[in-house]
Write a structure and sequence with these properties.
Elements: H1 6-21, H2 24-41, H3 45-67, H4 72-109, H5 116-129, H6 134-150, H7 159-167, H8 180-187, H9 197-230, H10 238-269, H11 286-291, H12 295-310, H13 313-326, H14 336-353, H15 357-387, H16 395-417, H17 421-431, H18 452-478, H19 484-488
Length: 489
Amino acid sequence: MSLLSFDFIIFFLIIMTVFFILPSKLQWVWLLICSCFFYYLNANILKFIIFLIIIFINYLGSFFIDKVSDNERTGRYIYRALTITDVICLLVFSYGEFVLDLINSILSLFGIPIPDHLISYINLVLNEISPPKISYFMLIILGYITEVYWGRTKAFKNPGKLILFSSYFPIITSGPIITISDVEATMFSEEKHHFSYERFIKGMMRILWGVFKKLVISERLAVFVNTVYSDYEVYPGLYIWIAFILFAFQLYTDFSGLMDIVLGSSEILGIILPENFNTPFYSTSLADFWRNWHITLGEWLRNYVFYSIQRTKPFMSLNKLCKKKLGKNYAKKYNFPLYLSLLITWFLIGLWHGGASNYIFGVGLYMGIIIILSGLLNPLFEKLTKVLRINTSCMSYRLFQRTRTFFIFIFGLSFFRAESLTEGFKMWSFAFTSFNPWILFDRSLFSLGLSREEFHIALFGLLLLFFVSYYQHREAERGTGATVRDLIM
């Protein structure tokens, strides 16, 4: 069931009406029933059963981790076994094809490849049994059992609460990736959630803003982008550059539009979810950009992967070795353990987005390498700005930083949209084969699926988006926390 469908509108109205009628003790139970039903509609009975089995295994595991909290060794064994089980489920169900191709490539080196018909059969079976959106709810569960193991939260005594927490119907489609601290106070509140007219209006304004971004901007830009990407040899030069730029805005308005619908719907019910975007195109560095883009994924990886990697024995040993060989202050210049953990984290970011080389490179390793290089070269840049007497606090310099960050980002993002890593590099080669600026004036842009009127509507939508984003960014810098509703109403 799509969040933009008429069915979802009816579904949500029924949820909202019954939710506010029920007593406080039954409100979360109603959300649990609706979330299970919503998940089932997007799956089948077998996928739904597998989903429940995964939840129940983690429920039992977290219960025992909590129960043996006084015995650190036993709790660690249970936590590791549970984590390994969850990661295997994630790899098999979400990245089964990628893992199978990798295994087949390794076996082929020894002259024992897997037969093609067997690979096809395994992929068919995996497609039939893989629970949908597992990459979202599995990260939520992994974060939950980690919090229980660390002693930061108590395990749910009621398995229904874990099911609701990990598959709350608005977030199961596209996030955000929540933690217990994000929603426990509102999702499982002992106080009754009453209908609030003000909250309803705020939520509806956010939903409508999300629908606008999705339908008015993203859906139109997708037509242009898809035309160029599917036949880039016919549309070289500036066509490709425009497609690269527009795809960044297409993806942003599509994803952030969904987030607005999700967060607005949940806000109406009184359950506040964490933000997932914070005007990323106003970022002045790539690291800053990713702190404002898919925020909850970045925070999850930082809290549960990046810091955990640095606390492992191999990395502690590497840290000691670097201190011995390079001196105690080595980290100020060449923090190799930090760079390695960053690369591993960015590899996982690329892998999470899709099990293919173009994802792993485009929104994974490439982004990590650029961030590491920017950190290494930052002292040199600071010296250059002093020597050249560049005013780094003026608006023109910030504009330069934002433009530079945007084009660094779209280079990697172009591979994310390409059919493969090879196709991505081919597109960039064709982007430089022709010099055709006249297409901006001879109406050639109106022959790629969008009429002149449709193209102008999309551009108007982008201008409105820039205006609203600028207002939000300016007010955020002032600390007022302005929202879209504050601008429109």
